[in-house]
Fold this sequence. Notes:
- The structure holds two protein chains of two kinds.
- Chain A is mainly α.
- Chain A has helices at 7-35, 52-59, 62-94, 100-108, 115-126, 133-140, 157-181, 186-194, 199-210, 212-227, 231-236, 248-257, 262-292, and strands spanning 38-39, 47-48.
- Chain A has 13 helices and two strands.
- In chain A, strand 1 and strand 2 (47-48) form a beta hairpin.
- Chain B is mainly α.
- In chain B, 71% of the residues lie in helices and 0% in strands.
- Chain B starts with 21 loop residues before the first helix and ends with a helix.
Amino acid sequence: MLPNRSKTSVLVFLLPPLLLYCAAVLFPILQSLFLSFFSWNGISDMEFIGFENYVRMLTADDIFWRSFANALIYLAICLVLQLGGALVVASLLTSLRRGRELIKTLYLLPAVISTVAIAFLFVRIYSIDPVGLLNQLLHWVGLGTFERAWLSDVNTVLAAVSAPEGWRFTGLYMLIIYAALIAVPKELEEAAVLDGASQWTLFTKIRFPYIRPVWITTTIMATTYGLRGFDIPYLMTSGGPGQSSELLTTYMYKTAFTSTDFGYASTVSVFIVIECLAAVGLILFMLKRKADS
Amino acid sequence: MIVQTAPATPPPTLSPVPTINRRRRKPSLHRTLSRVLISLIVIVQVYPLAWLFLTSLRTEQDFATGDPFALPGSLTWENYARAFETGDLGRNILNSFIVTMGANVVIVLFGMMAAYAIQVLGFRLSKFVRGLFLIGIIVPVQIALVPLFIDYSAVNLLDTYQSMIIPLAGFALPMSVYLFSSFFEYIPRETYEAASLDGAGPYRIFGLITLPLSLNTVVTVVLVNSIFIWNDFIFANTFVLSEELKTIPLGLQNYIGAMGKVDWTATFAAVCVTITPLLLVFLVLNKAMIQGLESGATKG
């Protein structure tokens, strides 16, 4: 604490940021909670309906459950690509002598590009007429029977919209995990190698336990980002065909701004917030138990 | 341009002398394998971007009939001309600049002020305020869309630069507060005490000591946030309707014609134009940016 600070000076520094933060983040959360108890289309009078929106969401809305399931699959695909991919590349990178900086830069490139550009790019990659990269590649390696319009096929569309999100951020998580991996003390690794540890044991018994805290951070980051995924599915398919690539976020958005059902959309957003908080809690809980055992 | 990373496969090693046990050979095999694997992964990661650029240089006809993997038959800049005609690219880029700059000024200044109050000045509820800021990191931005839309329309803020800047800055503020406060921890107490003895109050200390010392953190915060703000789609798409205020992500949508018919080569040219500024900054400053992303994640 500064020797001669005053109450006013604290307020002068704290109030502007806090006000902005309240206006943009905290107040809207409370407002969503409030709106979720009303039926309102933005024009007519707001009508208080208690828990009716919640009852409807949980018991009578198939699209909601469909979107929820889709969001979980979307999350799973993103996590495998981002964390799995990141871990593999980061550990491969540590065994490289030169060119690390270059690879880090190249690998991070997609994260700098806007989701709209990525959505366009992948629409083209998946397309069948004119033939896109993916179908051409399948044709070349003799898997021509798998060629299809990836984004109009209800069986493949969800995976097809999840992959770009995974692709885009692998580099970011790789960077973080790599930074942690090179901080693992060399003496530990050398001692293990002298004892005859294979690369695999080296990884599972020494490196991975050592980077556990960073692994937790990245898992939480990737999970919360995966659960709020919106741009790419919305831009590529807008949740279609049917509801086969609808996520909770795109469903909420359409409920609010296409059907102008603000009350119900707020109910869905409250659910999204709870889902994110629950996911973070669950990750911390599981990782803590594993560490204790 | 990018595929040069593939390492030349090392010349076949001499057949191992029998006395050398297998352990000595293993690492080099391991290394070769990981080099090949890593090159493959990098190619998968980067090829789509190279392809995007190459496509933007192909003629429409070449694109419609040709094999997508083939190199362009002839290069043309015509797509770029058409891209500028179709959309209002210049306008979009200017708008993105205004929003990115505006939000960054707010994020840096307010983030620094809040961190100064919490970390340096200190007050009774500082732990609580710090916790409040943590909420903003976990909560998804989508939750703010409906309430802010309603509030903005009540106070006539829809369709303004502020309508984008306020939520972008608000949601970026927590991370900025954390980065600044963890940096402020390293400024020695004695510096402040000495300044206080010389009669400097909290305002002068902020302006003459804290602010100049944190320039590195400012760069980090600006770089990391600029990526997200420059590319923001959701706030711009929700709060902005008029053409004059559209930022780059929205402007790109103009290239989809009626019935979803897309002029692909012009679209890709437009995409190339719009990703260039950020890409250049990234390539020039990638060390600082990479460091920023790393520290942002490990401290958040």
